[in-house]
Amino acid sequence: MSLRAKLLLLSLLTLLLPWAGWRYAQEMETTLRRGQEASLLTTADVLSRVVAGEPELLYRTRDLSANFDPAQGDIFAPLLTTTPLVDGFADEWPVPARPVPGFTEDNFPAAPRVRLGVFGRSMHLYAEVRADKIDYEIPSHAEFAQRPSSDRLILLMRDEFGHERAWSLSAVAPGPLLVRPCEVGLPWVPAGETVPHVSGVWRETGTGYAIELRAPVNAFGTHLALYALDKDHRTIAQTPSLAAVHTGSELLKARLQRYAPEGTRVSVVDTHGWLLARAGSIAAMPADARYTGLQRDQHGFARSIYRNLFAGEDTPAVSYGLPYGMWGTPVDEARAGEERALWFEQAAGEPSLIRAAVPIELEGESFGALVVEQAGEQLVLVRELALTRLLNLTLAATVFAVLITLAFGARLSHRIRRLSRAASTALTPEGRIEAAIPETRARDELGALARSFGTLLGRLKEYTSYLQTLGTKLSHELRTPLTIVSSSLDNLSSEETLSPSAREYLERARHGAARMHGLLGALSEATRVEQSIEHTERVRFDLAELVRNMADAYRQTFPRHRIEARIELERCQITGSPDLIAQLLDKLMDNAADFAPEGAPITIALEGDARGCRLSVRNEGPTLPPGIDDRLFESLVSGRAGANGKPHLGLGLYIVRLIADFHGGTVNARNAPDDAGVVVTLELPRY
Amino acid sequence: MKKLIAIVEDEPALRDNYAAAFQRHGYSVRTYGSRKEAIEAFRARLPDLAVIDVGLRDEPEGGFELCRELRAISAELPIIFLTARDSELDAVSGLRLGADDYLTKDISLTHLIARVTALFRRIDALTQPSNRDQLVARGALVIDTARLHATWNDKPLGLTLTEFWIVHALAKNPGHVKNRQQLMDAANVVLDDNTITSHIKRIRRKFQAIDPGFDNIETMYGMGYRWKES
Q1: Residue A561 main-chain phi, psi, to 5 deg
Q2: Strand order in A365-375's β-sheet?
């Protein structure tokens, strides 16, 4: 794994930042929520005490709380939010979103379907009756109303004191309803006059007829029964019993309206969950004004992403069955005597809100529950905005950190790679040390490393150059004592009194001294060549002609070998020093002649193309030892197996290389393809 | 009268060996171990020839310095450098200071004596009456063997004695290739191959200083040099 990848991984740790921020925001939100819940519960508690002080506002009769049962046909009259048009149609009557007892299920299919509702001081009634044939009153026979001969609907009402009254409802045609008081009991003989303040409509339906009626609330009793009669006073349908009528309380609503804090909505349900009153509004939060610029659609896209990323702890919205009652959490728990506050997601038409429910208790007796609702939207909005900003910021910071780390890592690994490249190439293939270590000025650890590399290579270079100049120094230092020896021998040889044996020894000593001179000269030759290279001027010259001349000359110089020249080029102009090239050829020829057996051919070949030319000298003889390769061209390296009397210090090919370098060329030694000898090839660029 | 040779050499054994060899060949010899000692003696009396080591005790370049001082005293005195240093750079410096020869200590005593003898013979030639073929003219080149003087386009070339004899040997037979040995013989010198190359290079440069287009001395690689008629 590269350093860059590691740093990238490491920098990914900064992703913890947004996570931590998110966690923090959540903690904050939870705290805020708990606070709001507690305050709302307190509000609810206070209100519940107010309500508990006036139980008559909840129930018109005490037994309603215990015995009210829609399954037995009892009817609940909710507070209507709008006044229904008295038109015989049930369209504008509220339909609960969940099953409501006595409303949705049809326990008594044969009985008339009855709906009651309170709006202000009016009681609204809607009833549907199945009838095969409808007979209307004949207006001209109004005087015979006491012996009616039309279909009628009888409303039997009983008030809390046990008094019973009945109304007879009929019509002369679909349209306005005629409401007359009538005697209680068959044949329900109506009076001649109509009941005041009561109006209604008769409408024909596909299966029978429907009536809708509005009457003052206090004209209604606490119990109600309906009887549908045909023109012969036979009952064709009737409610199962004299049903208890339980209504919402306008008085309670007015009371709640007075006490409910701004921005909250207060509802009161009875012990069974029927909604008795609802007041206040959760809309129009003044908070919107406080948080200017805090709009729902601000950062909408990002927020929608985050909302999906981090689902909240809100409870899904509950359909309670309004306006009939509230069945569901947390109202059910409150009716059971337990305080509870919950957050609800926003649902159709309602913002997300917090709903606190407390039981209404008086002297240990539960009357129902009180629910306070408040918009949670504000908090949600604040949370989402804060979270969005936080996430955006930390995300940007993370991206920034990752990029910076990546760039830093790239730079670091680039520096290290550069250093390692420099270190690996410091030793040239020719065995020279070219210490060009980068980064030595950097002040960090890499710089220190680079400096140690530089120092190391510098010392190595010194050592190498010491080795390389050792020959020169040695030859210089040895030359003077050797000269003393040889000059003394020279003087000795001119003595005339020497015996023949002494003369013989003298000759041997002189021969040895001469060899030592030769060795010393060879040792310092490389240095001399290096120096002369420094002072050599480059000229254009014809390599082909030079090689041709040299080959001719070598035929005389090396009479014991067969010199063959294969010069393919007529002319070969190169830039360099002909003297040095001649010296180079001398060295190669010396080498070749030393290796080649007597009489064997030595081939000098020159070939080339537009870009360069190749000069090679091939000799027969022993092949190169394996593995020596280009080290042959280093100073003091010799691949020679055995000496044939001449000193071999491994400097000849080093000089060859020096001259090849001067010409920008390369030189290599390879075994001939058939392993019959060695080919040394010099490649020169032609510029 | 015996010729007087001064040897300035800091190594006593070597000094004595050289002195013995010269004395055996009939020269009188004075030896000096340091530059100071030598220059004081030279101020009193000039030798006929000076053999100087470049490195003198604690003065690595003392020989060069001595040569400079000696040339200030006498412009004609033949001076030979004899040194353990063998770099071309040192040789060039020595010759530029007006030395007549630059020899490394590899040289055998026999060769050294021959060299000195040749140098004296050349000096003698200056004082003798001129030969019949005093003037050799090759195009723009005129060589006066009597006065050991050469001109190109009537301008003096300022050749040293060794250079003069090399040019003379080449120009006498234009077109003939003279190998290194032949040139050494002509100049009465014993030089190694590299030194001949350096001499040729310096000679060419002297010609080119007068005539930049000069290319009459041709190198025949592996064989030697020849004078090319323009």
Answers
A1: -120, 160
A2: A275-280, A264-270, A365-375, A353-362, A340-344
B221 vs A contacts (CB less than 8 Å): 546, 549-550, 553, 578, 582
> And the tokens for A644?
């044939």
Contacts of A143 (CB under 8 A, 6+ apart): none
Specify whether domain A13-58+251-385 bears CATH 3.30.450.20: yes
CATH of A63-248, one of 2.70.70, 2.60.120, 2.40.50, 2.60.40: 2.60.40
- The pLDDT of residue B159 is 79
The answer to whether B37 touches B47, Cβ cutoff 8 Å, is: no
SS3 A113: strand
Higher pLDDT, A635 or A113: A113
Residues in chain B closer than 8 A to A484 (CB atoms) = 11, 13-14, 17
B197 at interface of A, judged by CB pairs closer than 8 A: yes
CB A49 within 8 A of CB A370: no
Contact B222/A552, CB-based, under 8 Å?
yes
Question: Average of pLDDT values for A332-354?
Answer: 83
The answer on pLDDT for A531 being more than 80 is no
pLDDT digits (tens, 9 = 90+) for A149-161: 788 999 999 988 8
- CATH architecture entry for B135-227: Orthogonal Bundle (1.10)
Count CB pairs under 8 A between chains A and B. 77
pLDDT of residue A287: 45
pLDDT, tens digit, for every residue of A238-279?
Answer: 888 888 888 888 889 999 999 888 888 999 998 888 999 999
Cβ of B221 within 8 Å of Cβ of A532? The answer is no
Q: Which helix (H) or strand (E) holds A679?
A: strand A677-685
Handedness of CA A417, A423, A427, A432 (dihedral sign): positive
* CATH number at A445-529: 1.10.287
Three-state SS string across A159-211, please?
A: CCCCCEEEEEEECCCCEECEEEEECCCCCCCECCCCCCCCEEEEEECCCEEEE
